[in-house]
Design a protein that fits this description.
This protein has one domain: Dehydroquinase, class II (Rossmann fold, 3-Layer(aba) Sandwich), CATH 3.40.50. It has 5 helices and 5 strands. It is globular, with a radius of gyration of 14 Å. The N and C termini lie close together (12 Å).
Amino acid sequence: MRIIIINGPNLNLLGKRETDIYGDLSFNEFFQALQEEYPQVQLSSYQSNIEGELIDKLHEVGFDCDGIILNAAAYTHTSIGLGDAVKAISCPVVEVHISNTMQREEFRHQSYISSGARGVILGFGMQSYELALQSFLK
């Protein structure tokens, strides 16, 4: 099974930025542990701060892999283009957020990704990624 985690803007700073919201673990540290825990999954990751690059990556992998775990970060709430890209591909997508966006600023309550996603997981910290991965394994 091939699963890719695609992360959007500022998630390259996990472990350093707003640790009260996002924790102090870097994504790379978390990702290594996830790979070790799920050796049966061909797990890869991609991160970009650039909206068009995220859309290009969805187009590139969206017809070949078994699942995409997408944390579009702030683009979740602003990018119709990313939402359209999720709807355009055949690979199932699970939308993930580390924080519970519904407990945060009102603009974070809107998602352009959700309507095209298989499901949405939010508010469980980095474990949100693992829950999404488990949804593909069931």
